[in-house]
Specification:
Layout lengths: L1 H11 L6 E5 L7 E6 L4 E6 L7 H12 L7 E5 L4 E5 L6 H6 L4 H15 L13 H20 L5 H14 L9 E3 L8 E3 L9 E3 L6 E3 L2 H8 L8 H15 L3 H30 L8 H12 L5 H11 L5
Antiparallel strand pairs: 1-2, 2-3, 3-5, 4-5, 6-9, 7-8
Length: about 325
């Protein structure tokens, strides 16, 4: 039935005879296709309910209004979760770097985008990256990763200790004014758009889960990528550039960056195990070693000593 609904949607947009090419998806139930004929090429987003394409449309409009380069929305069926999007091409950062492009200029473009966001007021209609939300996401590590690694569930006492540690860390993440967070801001979702100038040369994808929150989060998302290693020098250059360009207090920002980086790592590690166990997507387990290394790097920050101690007591050496 869904395939028939999709065929109807394509026919309504004069694409029923077009060539369809499946594209790599993400960890969600969304899937993507390139739809092309002699006249045009567009991207289909197929997001079956309960997925909701409304937030993608809203955030795309916000980004476009601020002069950035999300894909244009060409057509939408909100009730069934179909979108036709501008085809921004195949020049993903990940693909360019794999083909030999120098990574530093690409990451500088992305960092400059994040710097520019700090100069703009975040939209009022987006959900907030609240302490309650962070705490809820932190539980994924306890519920999925630890039982998978240790063979035992987390005791109520240890769970409460973990929560208490995070309650002491969270006040330290809000350094600088809140910004819009795209959340999945990494090399698989960023494109270099040749022929566009300035920040318009950065194509952005996969932002439907955007929130408003502390600016260090998306920088950690960019530089602590689950799918690829970013050069140590490149990462440090981008952090320094961000601090210098935004005039944020350096020590406080680096603390926020490390805490949010640890939160991301713990959350993603839990999600990857859940994807493998609950949905059979075992390929995500291959990325766990990199996420453990990111976590270990963040835990080296002095603010995270208490969390590091809890993890070592619970799991042993986390950085393997």
């Amino acid at each position: 039935m869904r395939e028939q609904h999709l065929a109807d949607f394509l026919k309504q947009n004069q694409l029923d005879a077009a060539k369809r090419q499946a594209l790599a998806g993400d960890a969600s139930s969304r899937r993507y296709e390139r739809i092309s004929d002699v006249a045009r090429s567009v991207i289909l987003m197929d997001a079956p309910p309960p997925e909701n394409v409304g937030p993608f449309i809203e955030v795309a409009a916000l980004l476009k209004a601020q002069g950035y380069s999300p894909p244009e929305i060409i057509a939408a069926d909100l009730s069934r979760g179909f979108l036709l999007l501008e085809d921004l091409g195949d020049t993903l950062f990940a693909r360019l770097i794999d083909a030999g492009a120098e990574e530093a200029p690409l990451y500088q473009l992305a960092a400059d985008f994040l710097i520019d966001l700090t100069r703009r007021s975040p939209p009022s209609g987006l959900p907030r990256f609240s302490d309650d939300y962070i705490s809820e996401q932190n539980e994924l590590f306890l519920d999925w990763y630890i039982p998978d690694q240790s063979g035992a569930s987390v005791s109520p006492r240890d769970r409460q200790m973990y929560r208490d540690i995070w309650s002491r860390l969270l006040p330290k993440i809000r350094v600088g004014p809140d910004v819009i967070l795209l959340r999945d801001f990494h090399a698989e979702n960023l494109l270099y758009l040749e022929g566009r100038e300035g920040l318009k040369a950065l194509g952005v994808l996969d932002f439907q889960d955007a929130l408003v929150g502390p600016p260090a989060y998306d920088l950690a998302s960019l530089l602590q990528d689950a799918r690829r290693d970013v050069g140590v020098e490149t990462a440090e250059q981008m952090i320094r550039r961000y601090i210098e360009q935004t005039n944020v207090e350096e020590n406080a920002f680096r603390s926020s960056y490390a805490i949010l980086g640890a939160h991301r790592a713990l959350r993603i590690m839990g999600i990857f195990v859940r994807l493998a166990k609950a949905q059979g997507k075992t390929r995500y387990l291959d990325m766990l070693p990199r996420m453990r290394r990111h976590l270990a790097h963040n835990l080296a920050h002095p603010e995270l000593g208490e969390l590091e101690g809890w993890l070592q007591k619970t799991l042993g050496d986390i950085g393997q």
